[in-house]
Amino acid sequence: MTHKFFTKLLGLFVLLLVFHTLMMEVIFHSMMEQTAGRTQYLLGREELFSGLIALALAIPLAAWVASRISTRLESVVAFARRIAGGDLSARLESTGEDELTAMETALNQTAERLGKNFDELESRRQDLAAILDSMQEAVVAITPEGFVRWSNAVMQRIAGTQIYPGRPLVHSVRDPELLACVRGALERGEICFGRAHLLAPGRVFEVNAAPLPSGGALAVLHDVTGIEAAQKSRREFVANVSHELRTPLTSIQGYVETLIEDGDSRPETTREFLGVILKNATRMNRLTEDLLALASVESPDYKLTLQSTRASALVKDAIDALGGLVVDSGVKLQSVGAPDSQVMADLDAMNQVFGNLIENALKYAKGGMRIRVGASLLESEVQFTVQDFGPGIASEHLERIFERFYRIDKARSRESGGTGLGLAIVKHIVQAHGGRIWAESELGKGVAFHFTLPIARTVQD
Question: In angstroms, rounded to a whole number, what is the distance separating the alpha carbons of residues 352 and 286?
Answer without folding.
Answer: 14
